[in-house]
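Hi F.,

I've been meaning to write this up properly since the lab meeting, where we talked about keeping a consistent format for the predictions we share between groups. The idea is simple: the sequence comes first, exactly as it goes in, then the structure tokens exactly as they come out, then a line or two of notes. No screenshots and no reformatting. I'm using this chain as the first example so we have something concrete to point to.
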Amino acid sequence: MNIRLRLDAIVRSLRRNGTSTIADLAEEVGASRRTILRDISALRDEGFVIHSEPGRGGGLQLDPQSLQTTPRLSVAEVFALLISVASMRAAGNLPFTSLADAGLAKIEKALPSDKIRDLRRFLDCLYVGELSPLVDISDMGAMDPALLPAFETAFLKKCHLRFQYCDANGARTQRNIEPQAMLILPPLWYLVAYDPTRNAFRHFRMDRISTPQCVPDQSFRRRHVPFAANVSPIRNLPR
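Output, unedited:
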């Protein structure tokens, strides 16, 4: 059992049983007493309030009102929250804007420094604009949940992205591209990429992309993307 699963199992056990001893927890999760003591310390660092009663009949107790105060969020998860708020703001459909921004700021501040660095690099690839009213969105579909984790790896590690693409006529092709930016034109989302085979930039609607895979042995360099005048980086949006 890895450390995260073990910590979660300890919290569940303490909530379920009320009081547990180090020995009971060690037997339940299959770890040594020393490991359990380290795990209890780690849980306290995460914000859980765990009381310790020494002596016969004592043990460990988790405060019933105790909650984890340090979020265990990946860069992709925080990025998903940020771009969801950004897209709603760009569409003019974000109630309680100040509360949403305050909550996201708290989450970002709680992240480790390496995740904050990755998050900022990821955000630098995100742009928002307005969709032309002439664009047909009647065939808009759902986006593949695998897109964002694949994008995170491809953008941060600057590796090629391979995927299946279905164009407006229903024709399917396999693409191998250099991801350069993500563009939100509510309600459509686009991957902006440089296609080496065509020696040109291409916009791929994300709801038409499937089975994305990173190609780690194929790297690329960031290029300047020629966006239209009404497109802005997410960091330049008014708050």
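Notes:
The chain has a mean pLDDT of 85.
The radius of gyration is 23 Å.

If this format works for you, I'll send the rest the same way.

G.
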